[in-house]
Amino acid sequence: MSSPHDHVPAPDEPTVPELEEDETVAPRPEEEIADRLRAKPDTADHTRHG
Asked: What is the predicted pLDDT for the residue at 50?
């Protein structure tokens, strides 16, 4: 199995991959917490009986 470090760029590829726009800013702590909460499915009943 190869790792991303084994990639040899083609002649028309840059040797250093470009960062996407959102990869230039560190994630905020609340985004990390939200990601963790979204990782668990919400199976609770949220319908209102009333």
From this structure: 61
Q: Is pLDDT of 19 > 60? A: yes
Provide the H-helix boundaries in 1-50.
Answer: 29-39
* 22-27 mean pLDDT: 70
On the CB side of 9, CA atoms within 13 Å amount to: 8
Q: Is the full-model pTM beyond 0.85?
A: no
User: CA–CA separation, 34 vs 42, rounded Å?
Assistant: 13
DSSP calls for 1-50: ---GGG----TTS-SSPPPPGGGSSPPPHHHHHHHHHHHS---S------
